[in-house]
Amino acid sequence: MRKILFWVATYCFWVITVGNAQQRCGLDASMNILELRDPTFRQRFESRKEEINRNALSASHEKNSGTSAGDITIPVVFHIVVNQGQYEKMGGKWGIESRCKSQIDVLNEDFNRSNFDSSLVPELWKPLYGNVGVHFALAHTNPYGYPSPGYTIRLISKAGVSEFDSAKYTNLGGTDAWDVNKYINVWCVNFDGPSVSGLIGVTQSRSMGGDSSALGICMLYNVLGRRQDTAQSFPGNSKDSTWYDLGRTLTHEMGHFFEIWHVWGDDNGLCPWNPDGRRVLPDLPPQGGQTTTNPRYNIPGGTIHDGCSDSSGVDVQPIGIACLDFMDYTDDSGMHLFTPDQALVMRSMFADPTGESYSLTQHPEVLEWPVGAPQIFNVFPNPTTGVLTFYYDNNTNPLQYITICDVNGIKAGTVLPTATPDFVFDISWLRSGVYILKIQFLHSVATQKVVLYKPGK
Q1: What's the rounded Cα separation, in Å, for the pair 347 and 343?
Q2: Higher-confidence residue: 309 or 308?
């Protein structure tokens, strides 16, 4: 039976602007639907969120914003699910590799207080410039022990996925998650359908329940990474003619994955002192709603005020709102920090065995290339309807040939490489089924399972 996750995931819908219909986040709307389906849902979610915050802030963690939290490194794998045109728009294989690497760089900077634009943090906000103290790296060993460049590629014939959950399952046209207890899975797709049109990012965290095999982040394929040159394709924000091209979409979504939420409380624009208003964390100023575009600061040493700037005549936003926070909706170029309390909450997710993401810190072996493996090789799309692209990248261990065998080890054919590190070959002459590629390099041998699926055959 098809697994439906659409209403059981944590939503942060970032939207490419379309005329006057822009809506950058559907979190509250999705919460309303979840509550209609289960009247106890919102109460359970809010209770869990309060429990997480309370436990993190009461724990004996160092709250100094400049304190490094340690040498934790978490493996990340990117699943690229695009059609041929989108693949080329990303720059092909080498463009995807560059984007993945630059995205890891952005995460490491933003989560370790070393982002290049930290000089833009106003003076009064510098004490609130927090350090999460976690690093990220591409996973170089896949769940089967084979080498990986840290990403998979599946070429599809459709314009995109009509529901983001379909990107997470091979049998629905996407790519199955790698072990969610060892890897953070990030799917890069084109959202194409009435229920997902215009999305930029959406996260399913553990606190929301749902299918645990689908934990992770989906985001628009061409927001991946940081711009390296002007020719690269990134989506634009028509409100102020800027680009989502600094990799902050994944920084924001990774915050959700580690259980921190929007700086304004997602309470329909209410101030915290309203009976139905919510305040996210103690070191975040009261804020009525999200901030769009990149506002010009007008408070000396601070940011800006909004409609929650005054309560009973007392200024409750002396240094302004957290519009410069990674968890607001300013442009990529307007996001500069996590606060110390946000850092504590995220850190509590993996700081000790009680944290829900602790297991992600316990498998450093997946960060390393398997012994004797070529530096990089991959085969896509997998499953395939016939045509496969193979690429590798190791001049000291060149490819000799590929033997195609069935699951019983019977040889079905041999493929000789071309002079380029990536080439295409056709296996459509074989029957639908599972095949093993025995890949002979000069100094090592690797294997890769591929699934050939020819509809009706």
Answers
A1: 6
A2: 308
Q: Distance (Å, rounded) from C-alpha 301 to C-alpha 121?
A: 9
Residue 196: phi and psi, rounded to 5, are: -130, 0
Q: Rounded distance, CA 12 to CA 266, Å?
A: 11
Domains of the chain: 27-263+326-360 (3.40.390.10), 382-452 (2.60.40.1930)
Which CB contacts under 8 angstroms, 24+ apart, belong to 310-317?
A: 311/271, 311/273, 311/286, 316/285, 316/286, 317/285, 317/286, 317/287
What is the DSSP-derived secondary structure letter of residue 89?
H
Is-cis flag, bond preceding 295, omega within 30? Answer: no
Other beta carbons within 10 angstroms of residue 181's beta carbon come to 13
What is the token pair recorded at 100?
A: 């993945």
Which amino acid type is present at position 135?
H
Interval 235-275: pLDDT, tens: 887 677 788 899 999 999 999 999 999 999 888 888 888 88
Cα torsion through 227, 232, 235, 238, rounded to 10: 90
Average pLDDT, the chain: 84
User: What DSSP line would sit under 206-248, residue for residue?
Assistant: GGG-S-GGG-EEEEEGGGSSB--STTS---EETTTTEES-BSH
Using DSSP, state whether 19 is helix, strand or coil. Answer: coil
Q: What SS3 state is found at 298?
A: coil
Mean pLDDT of 409-423: 84
Q: Tell how strand 184-189 and strand 72-82 pair up.
A: parallel
Count of C-beta atoms within a 10 Å radius of residue 396: 9
Phi/psi of residue 223, nearest 5 degrees:
-95, 0
Distance, in Å, from the CA atom of 18 to the CA atom of 36, rounded to the nearest integer, reads 28
Return the structure tokens found at 410: 């019977």
- Alpha-carbon separation of residue 230 from 227, 234, 439 (angstroms): 7, 10, 37
User: What letter would DSSP give residue 34?
Assistant: H
Indicate if the pLDDT at residue 218 is higher than 50. Answer: yes
Alpha helices in 7-80 (DSSP H): 27-37, 41-58
Backbone angles phi, psi at 345, to 5 degrees: -65, -50
How many whole angstroms separate alpha carbon 191 and alpha carbon 197?
Answer: 6
Q: Tens of pLDDT along 143-191?
A: 988 888 899 999 888 988 887 778 899 888 889 999 999 999 999 999 8
CA atoms within 13 A on the CB side of 135: 12
Sequence-separated (6 or more) residues with CB below 8 Å from residue 325: 263, 284, 335, 336, 337, 338, 339, 342
Q: What DSSP character marks residue 214? A: G
Structure token pair of residue 224: 């991946």
